Amino acid sequence: MKKIYAPWEKAFKKVSTPFEHFLHAQTTTGLILIFMTILALILANSPLAESYAHFFHTRIDLDVGSWELAHTIHHWINDGLMAIFFFIIGLEIKREVLVGELSNIKVAILPILAAVGGMLFPALIYFSINAGTEGANGWGIPMATDIAFAISALVLLGKRVPTALVTFLVALAIVDDLGAVLVIALFYTEQIHMLPLALAGGAFLILILFNRFGIHMILPYFIVGLLMWFFMLESGVHATIAGVIAALAIPSRPKLAPANFRADTKVLLDEYDTYPKDEGHGLHERQKAILLKIQDSIKAIGTPASRLEHDLHLPVALIVIPLFALANAGIAIDFSSIGTTIMTPVSLGIVMGLILGKVLGIFGVAWLAIKFKIAVLPKGSSMNQIFGVAFLAGIGFTMSIFVADLAFIGNSELIFQAKVGILAASLSAGLFGYFWLRFIAKSKVEES
């Protein structure tokens, strides 16, 4: 029977490296995001709109004696589940810095500079449009790039784009995520309560000690990390920041030295072969023990950070991000007034920031860095393709919506205007970037 693959699955049939697995996960996330966003928009504009809104505003209370933690489902998703998403971001940042594109400054300098430009220009354009208005606080909204959507578009282009261009976008998006985390922590915190913040700092110190003492079990990190999340929630600093900070403490060094793995495994396999094969009675008890020992060695040569990143990508892709999209992307659209909404300062600032700002910041800064020989183009790519990637980076979506909820907390009208701008800009930037790279841009090899 012939196997049938989804369009993106066949390309990843031979996934072998962690980076390729990462791309596969991001592509899957992006495709699911599209589906959930469309579903949220359908529900918000259907007879089920009231039930849809009511469901996400249902309160879930946790009471233990006099202690109470009460939030709506919407709040639990944005402050609770999204902490896992930010934990993944933290792990990705750490991996890129230690062994990825950001570990080599000569390679990293271009995406770093482009990412900084891609954050500053959108913020400046937005603020110039909204200065002096109640929407001015939303300057951080167009700074973000949705890594899942952007990478999905590139990966679906297949061999039309060089691998180096994909790694450039990944590195750029990782730096962008780091910038977004810092903006949330520093500028979208209304009031700080010092005692819970100090307790969160103490929890982080314990995580660091776990790392230094060589503890590789996940459970201790989970328990203390959960406590840190709670203290961060109570401190006034957005609780999702705890996810990023906790990720930095997860060990990235293997328990077993890679140099010893081959020799140790060979000894075990040689011993395994000394026992006679008995098809009727299965494995010898000692052989079973040897296989378990090899299994433990395989776990020991890996790191808790890489293992968690691998294990959490699927639940984040299939549960966390889809729920976030379902809870946040649903806006009731009055098509007769959509043009008026787009022209409000908030929506217009976001559209101009995510499209014009990202292109000026990423393409403009990259062009200058290459012209003045500060950096070099990714191997096999062209400035034409960097231009297309700059548009793809204008897909803000997940992080932009997240920042909008923080920037305009309690102001449903501005949040609505922001979401309209985010959806319009992300759709426009994504489609233009995709079609530019597919039909217009050429690689450096094709141009020569």
From TrEMBL:
GO cellular component entries: plasma membrane
Gene Ontology biological process terms, A to Z: regulation of pH
Pfam families referenced in this protein's UniProt entry, alphabetically: Na_H_antiport_1 (PF06965)
Reactions accelerated catalytically: Na(+)(in) + 2 H(+)(out) = Na(+)(out) + 2 H(+)(in)
Keywords per UniProt: Antiport, Cell inner membrane, Cell membrane, Ion transport, Membrane, Sodium, Sodium transport, Transmembrane, Transmembrane helix, Transport
Keyword Cell inner membrane attached: yes
Transmembrane helix keyword on record: yes
Record InterPro entries: Na/H_antiporter_dom_sf, NhaA
GO MF assignments: sodium:proton antiporter activity
Transmembrane domains' residue ranges: 21-44, 73-93, 105-127, 139-157, 164-188, 194-210, 222-250, 312-333, 345-370, 386-408, 420-441
Places the protein is found: Cell inner membrane; Cell membrane
Membrane protein topology class: Multi-pass membrane protein
Its biological purpose: Na(+)/H(+) antiporter that extrudes sodium in exchange for external protons.
Family to which this protein belongs: Belongs to the NhaA Na(+)/H(+) (TC 2.A.33) antiporter family.
Protein name in the entry: Na(+)/H(+) antiporter NhaA
Gene behind this protein: nhaA
